[in-house]
Amino acid sequence: MWRELQALNPQVSPFQSWEWTSLWWKHFGKRKQARVLCVKDGAETVGIAPLYGSRTGMGACLRWIGTGISDRLGIIAEPGLERQVAEAVAEWLEAQPCTDLHQLADGSWLARAAEAHGWFVVRQEKCPYVPLPVTWEQYWGSLSKKTRFNIGYAQRQIQRELGEMEMRTACEGELPQALEALFDLHTRRWRQRLLPGGFFHPRVRQFHREWAQMANANGWLRLHLLLVAGTVQAVLYVFHFGRRAYYYLGGFEPALTRYSLGTVLTAHAIRQAIEQGCVVFDFLRGDEPHKYRWKPQVQWHRRACRAKGMLAWAWRRRVEWETRLWWWLQARLHGGRES
Fold it and tell me: Is the pLDDT of residue 308 over 60?
């Protein structure tokens, strides 16, 4: 049922898939109560809202399964019935003590329903994305002359000063080693900023080890590698899902920052996405400057929160504080990082 709906709707992200969600629950569902809503039209299931309940300092709250390490979340609905499913879910949530929904796509029917019902809805994060043309040559020609020159110069500089360069996608037998290289490169890059990075927790790393195998078996994984003299120096963790490429995270050797390894490998990843029929290259959440050299458009993620009684005021203050903190951290981090 879940897999059938996600296959029908091209707007569903990998983070809403049964595969990602069930694996998230396996690793992060402890002490949480699953509340997966099924919206039916007669006997047919036409929508799913994968939620969980947990206790917070301000009482019980419902959130998306996947909140935290996921990017784009929301309902999964049969095409053409998204509005009706969103309204049904919003009406059910109205009767619950508290709901806090992260990572709603800008313009999604559930975000609209939340606003129409008077929920507290805020812009959460910018999400740059690139609509892709049919050919790499068309896209390459749309980039600025400076960007094209810099990429070419960086490639020549790498080969001239560091040794033979190779870019390719990790095959099945290479996945364990390539993923560990990603963890290492990404974490070392972030530790330079005295921050843990996205793979710091052992449970997160184990989740991604299992997800990478699952995604690869389904044809969704693209673990792009840049090797210099046979050694992996940069890795991009990308998913191809429903004709969209999702750039989740990356890492590159901190000692080689001046060689723009992340930029060179991102160009390779975008080219492969075009050649494999993707129509969008999605950089997901985060307003990092390096994303803007690729001439993206921008959408926002929304956060929708609703609570009853005095809790409504408390949750509104909490969401406002967390939103300000997020943007303060973003301003601190923006130094042209590439992973």
Answer: yes
Asked whether residue 292 is domain-assigned, the answer is no
Reported pTM: 0.93
pLDDT given at position 324: 76
Residue 168 structure tokens: 């390719």
CATH of the domain at 46: 3.40.630.30
The domain containing residue 140 runs over which residues? 133-278
Indicate whether 326 pLDDT > 90: no
Domain assignment present for residue 338? The answer is no
pLDDT tier, 134 (very low <50, low <70, confident <90, very high otherwise)? very high
Rounded mean pLDDT of 281-309? 93
**Lowest-confidence segment of 24-38, 189-203, 212-226 by average pLDDT:** 189-203
